[in-house]
């Protein structure tokens, strides 16, 4: 094979890849196309890279609780579990770290998964987010590559700072999340003392079929508290399960953690004129433009009886919707709609939804049969296809998702907005001087092991574009000059 051949990225069947940065969509804002076989192959193969541990979010803790509606927002959504003030819905929450293995420490610097399963009267609704409002990338086609950088080097089996910063420096859209991760909020004091976010933009539809865009914010009632790196490191050595233990013990003694759930609501037409692309998960919506509106309150009041049966076998997918809540054109979300369900079918089995922790509290009527771990009567002798003349369950047109218009060429399309620096710069300028100093120290400590100065300088350039002081201080800490 020639050197030129080795330089070409290909699919697993050897075909050259034309675009590995942007998935194919129906127009710039259209949904992701299933014909993008390169995207599907990457996501499907990625889900099968670890057996049987979760590829991401392997280390987690969970608890049962309830959600109570505190404000009537039926003008925006027909979701039944949000239909009246005072209505309560049982739920299960799983918190997790993202990058580490199942035996890793709870107190590492890492985003935390914040996944909520609402057992509603119209089926399960999963809100699968993080403790940050943004993410490192904005297109699912880059997700397997990103997570590879967070895992271990294939030769040394050690964490690889060169890969981490090389990828980030070549993906400037990551700067916002990198700044949050390296700030004080990168290591929560406990799972109870952090906010949660749906992160993506979703679509709400009301009873009249009118739609709005929405973002979710879980605000901790315990207050935000974080760990100093020295304390986190000591806990990692002394009690690597510190967060898991803290959550269990708090609930056991009746100190039930709670979060207020608020939403930002954007009129549908504003998506075409807002100064940032509202579907770009590396960006936030200004709360001055779209203020937080209280929706309800989440309380965790019961520990699992068996960790494996409940926490480990719990499966969450952002594609688990109920009527009144739908997807947006967010490219990262569009990829997750496939990837999460596919991961569960591989890791837990085709019938993962029938396990007690995942089973809906409402009636389930499908024509799905057989498969591994089928524990019920498998539909008995009832009709097993549709349409049929035997009076089996059939579709209800009133529950069809709301239609939306798409246009444009089928192509691998990058997001229109390329401003990766304004929001990270704004965040940096919001920090106190003490917080800025700790942020810079953390970044400098994380970047020092990187072997190539070219990677460091490329990343310093991103910090500088966000805020000249930000870049200058990081450069000084690394003993480097600001690149021209």
UniProtKB/TrEMBL annotation:
Q: Where is this region: Disordered?
A: 1-28
> GO terms for biological process?
hydrogen peroxide catabolic process; response to hydrogen peroxide
Q: Which residues form the Catalase core domain?
A: 10-394
Name its co-factor(s).
heme
Reactions mediated catalytically = 2 H2O2 = O2 + 2 H2O
GO MF: catalase activity; heme binding; metal ion binding
Compositional bias ranges of the Polar residues kind: 9-26
Identify the keywords attached in UniProt to this record, alphabetized: Heme, Hydrogen peroxide, Iron, Metal-binding, Oxidoreductase, Peroxidase
Catalytic class of the enzyme = oxidoreductase
User: Which amino acid positions bind heme, per UniProt?
Assistant: 340
Instruction: Identify the SMART domains for this entry.
Output: Catalase
Residues the record marks as active site = 57, 130
For this protein, the Enzyme Commission number is 1.11.1.6
In this record, what's one Pfam family?
A: Catalase-rel
Top-level taxon of the source organism: Bacteria
GO CC entries = cytoplasm
The keyword Metal-binding belongs to this UniProt entry's keyword annotation? yes
Q: In which family does this protein belong, per the annotation? A: Belongs to the catalase family.
Protein name per Swiss-Prot or TrEMBL:
Catalase
From what organism does this protein derive?
A: Paenibacillus pectinilyticus
